[in-house]
Amino acid sequence: MAMYAKLLAGVLAVSLSIALVGCSQDQGGSGSGGSASSSSVESVEVPAPDAEIADVTTVAYLGPEGTYTEEAAKLFFGTNDDLKPQATVSDALALVADGTVSYAVVPQENTLGGPVTDYIDALLASQDVSVVGEVVLPIRQTLMGLPGTDLTQVKRVLSHKQGLAQSSAWLDENLPNAERIETASTAAAAQQVADGGDTSTVAIAAPGAADLYGLEVLRENVSKSDANKTRFYVVSRHANELAGYDRALFVASMSAEELPGVLNSACANGTKLVCVHDRPGKTALGDYRYEIELEREGGFTDEEVSRLEDIAQLQLLGRFASVETTSAGNSASSSE
Question: What is the pLDDT of residues 252-302, one digit of tens each?
């Protein structure tokens, strides 16, 4: 699979020709995973970065090196751009907001673990940024440790909270007494195990993290699901202004009681609901901030956006094209 990106400096938008090529993938840990043999080409446009950084696409992502967020960035933008790992998603978004980097890639939700609430909060709290694209990747969580690790002696399992949540059934069955410790990312978990030198501590990440940090794969696919995928948003300081994008992301603050009426008003004239994520409004019990994603065949015109902002009291957070990209999942560690 490959994704090829071509940055067109000096114009209003960057055109990304994305080749999505199906590939054989084993997510069951047995070495005989299903095979897909389809290919398609999508055209996705994202806004051009500022002139002073237009000679290279700079992308911030949740590090360290080896996260699935890094893989998502490489698939969306190509592998020749300047990728900058950050300690937190908030740090990555701040670099976008102040113009230090062109884009950030942010995990949003997982099919098993649900919405990544910390990162949704970070996005909602960010000023002057817009969602301009998405990437969907399969997640194949893998248990790894130092060479010579004995599973019967494992006392601690490190991973991001999404990695732990996605693997909870396997851990309950196979390592019920091991302490589960959250880390900033699954790649960070692998790095800590490698640096710690303790064979009683293991990490949950993806196969590529084992190679990157010199660890031994102990068990494959501990999430025990072929449906395990994470969706990432691509974020820029410059919003997509064209009207042909089929997805739009909005934010709204209201009580839970008001939400059904707002959604009813929003989902008219061919507009459909994709998903809703709620976060505390931090004002009163029952008040929330909602991240609302809508879909519309033919795209969201300025008139439709105005209708939604006026009638449904929604604030536009970005327009983008829906694109699902599959990957063999062998080159990086899950970054949720």
Answer: 999 999 999 999 999 988 899 999 999 998 888 888 999 999 999 889 999
Span 247-320 CATH architecture = 2-Layer Sandwich (3.30)
- Evaluate the omega torsion of the peptide bond into residue 176 and state whether it is cis, within 30 degrees of 0: no
Q: What are phi and psi of 166, to 5 degrees?
A: -65, -25
Instruction: Give the tokens for residue 269.
Output: 């004239």
Distance CA 25, CA 104 (A): 27
Q: What is the pTM of this model?
A: 0.76
pLDDT tens digits, residue range 214-262?
999 999 999 878 888 999 999 999 998 777 789 999 999 999 999 999 9
Architecture of domain 142-219: 3-Layer(aba) Sandwich (3.40)
